[in-house]
Amino acid sequence: MPVPPRCPFHRIFCLLPAPCSLLPTPCSLFPVPCSLFPIPFAIVSDLIFPTLDLFLYDLRDALNLTEAEKQEKQAKFRAKLPADSQFSDPDLETKYLELLPRQKYYDFTTANNTLEGYYYPVRLNDTYGLQIDCSINNQTDPQTSDCFARLRAEIEWRLQGERATLGQSWMLSGWLAKTSSKSYEYIAQSCYQVFQTAANWSQDLQGESTPESSTKQEKDIAKSGDKVFDKVANWSQDLQGKGSLFGGQVFELWRYQPHSQSNSHVIIMIFPDQASMEKAAELYTDWMGLFSYRNKILWAYSQSRLIKKSLVNFYKQVEANQRIIADQNASGFRDETLAAKLDDIQKYLGNYTLDLPKLNFQNQIIEINLFNYQTRLEIINQKCQELGADNNLKFLETFSKEVKENYLLQVTKDYDIMEVALRLLETRLNAIRSQIELEKAERDRNFQTLVTVVGAGTAVTALVDFEGKQCQNVSKLIPPMEKSCDNPLINSVIVPVGLIVIFGVIALCLKKILSGIRLG
């Protein structure tokens, strides 16, 4: 993967010192939180050149996408970039492709030059990646941690509501002022608290204001200090690991809810000086790849939860219909009702059969991206060694362990269980079909027997007395019936039917005797 020829520190500025309290802040856009909720970490003024990077990812291509859908996804990603950027995405297979080939970066500054940044879009195989970098345009004076709210507001305003489809990761960085006496972790906590508060502000934003507007309230956030509060931010709960990089400290915070596809991932890097932060900037393209694999793993696992939920729903529908057939079959079903229930079962089973391989497909996506994640992490560690310094990024391996022991294992077990469930459903359906066929065959045999009795009896009766004088002939055999022949009902109905039954039964017995002889 190529290293960008320029890092965020490629510009040299000649600016007058500007205290952070004079810089615009996002209070013009967002309400100041209530003072009833103080936090233990006040706004600190120890960071120089605070920088915020957003790495977001969109799916570019997939096996089941049509060309029109592919173009639609490209247009949606393109909407995250400035309209006049020279975007180019040739249809060729590549592992890493910069999508602004002429300039690579699209630089921007705010109207009053207090903020600067750039866009850096790339393609990683079937995925679009975009880095949006934004920093305070001052490499001399310490800034307060609330500046990260300002930086986040700027980035999210530039996205104009466009969101990542696969996921995103945030990176907060800066170097310590020489006069700072606070610990790295204390400063990181303060930055995280303000950063998460800015997320709530952005959600509450109404209207079409820009981050540059309404200077009157922009000073309030600095005055509020320890009033900044976000009930969602929880450092001890969200902190998943920490390490060291080029003499500074790195903190990883994330929370993940697979069923709601909620994924918050934040990296905070606090460096001892400018030189160490500039070294770290050479790893930006590696972070781009690492975060891509990470977000795709979590996205695939979330998809697997949705697929499993769908499979469970289909299973319940099939089971419910099978139970209805089993319960009602004894009392009898009309053929059309039975056929409708069987059609419903077949429909749900068909959907189940189509969704089951998708679960295994998500498992394979997790596996390949886990392999890529581990490979990229090894490359990062190797680069860190080449650049020197005592680095420790082992905490990033925790994610690999989590994926192996939880996500991959869970999806594999889910697939095995749902596959067995499919076999059970199919076996039970076959048993129901067999029972229905047996009952139908039994009904057919009974009907054939009735036809045999009636047909044979009628034929023999007609043969014995084709003139229709059955009653007189029977009365000769049974004298007491002679007077009864004068009764029309007996003469026309009872006697003919009786003879038909008698001769029919005799014919049925002869048929069974002959069948037994044949089988013998």
Task: Describe the protein's architecture and organization.
With 520 residues, the protein is an alpha+beta fold. It contains eleven helices and ten strands. Strands 1, 2, 3, 4, 5, 6, 7, 8, 9 and 10 form a ten-stranded mixed beta sheet that branches. A hairpin with a 5-residue loop joins β3 and β4. α2 crosses α3 and α9 packs across α11. The longest helix is centred in the last third of the chain and has 68 residues. The radius of gyration is 40 Å and the shape is elongated. The N terminus is likely disordered.
Short description:
The chain is α+β, with helices and mostly antiparallel strands and 520 residues long. 52% of the residues lie in helices and 15% in strands. A hairpin with a 2-residue loop joins strand 4 (115-124) and strand 5 (127-136).
Shape: elongated
Terminal-residue CA separation = 83 Å
Tally the helices: what do you get? 11
Low-confidence stretches: 1-40, 200-231
Question: How are the SSEs ordered, and which strands pair?
Answer:
Elements: E1 47-59, H1 67-78, E2 97-98, E3 106-109, E4 115-124, E5 127-136, E6 142-143, H2 147-159, E7 167-176, H3 184-204, H4 220-224, H5 235-238, E8 239-245, E9 248-257, E10 262-271, H6 274-280, H7 284-328, H8 335-387, H9 397-464, H10 470-477, H11 488-519
